[in-house]
Amino acid sequence: MKSFFTLSLACIAAVAMASNYHRGAGVPGGWTPANVDDVKMVYFSVSETETSYTPATMLRLCATEFTSAEMQVVNGINYKLHVQACTVSSAKDATPTCSCPSGTSKAYAINLLKDPNEVTKVSNIELDTPADGTPTTTPETKIGGASAPRPVTEDDKAIFTRATSDEANYASSQLARVCASEFISVSTQVVAGMNYKFTVMGCALETPPPATADCKTTCAFKPVATYEIKVFAGLDKTVRVVDVSYVVGLPALL
């Protein structure tokens, strides 16, 4: 009788353990739902710090909507945060109050790792996969892919102006110094920093245009052409004009 009772308890315990295992509750390695607001706080505690991103070449995001979160017990805790976001040029722009230009937000999954010493790192950022399992493929899915041309934001213009207004930022004395009277589009590429490819209308000058230049006025009596200007913005906040060329035909905005 005693052995039967002991066996019964063992069976009940085994069933309970199996039930917990299939729910992922308390089992190391199993993903379980997490409180979105809690994981959001974990993310924003590190999102504005460049050294929190490992590797340093991953995307920086302005996350504006937080849809769900998961956690996984490993040697520490993994968090996965599902968001609507747009890419930004540096961590300092990944703030709780940031905003995305209309039509630029996409679904991303942000992975965080909090190690046993309570140090949190952003361990991965990638475009999210829809619930139906259809892979999302865009040029921004992987590091090194250039995005499609898009409208130029004020932040983009600020980087362009900072780069093109200082002679020291030009990679070569042979590059045209262009005063941009109209911004047509920009595409970006995440590297160890950010590559920008601006398509602009403007006029060539003998020296770089001042940061405060009114290029519509400056170019009023000069030949105006379409230029493609490539700018590199480093993680150390430096900017560099790496190439300037004429454009034959304009890229379509998608």
From TrEMBL:
GO terms for cellular component: cytoplasm; extracellular space; vesicle. SUPFAM superfamilies: Cystatin/monellin. InterPro entries: Cystatin_dom, Cystatin_sf. Residues 130-141 have a biased composition (Low complexity). Keywords: Protease inhibitor, Signal, Thiol protease inhibitor. Residues 127-151 are annotated as: Disordered. One of its GO terms (molecular function) is cysteine-type endopeptidase inhibitor activity. It comes from the Eukaryota. Residues 1-18 form the signal peptide. PANTHER family: CYSTATIN. Belongs to the cystatin family. This is Cystatin domain-containing protein. The lineage of its organism: Eukaryota, Sar, Stramenopiles, Oomycota, Saprolegniomycetes.
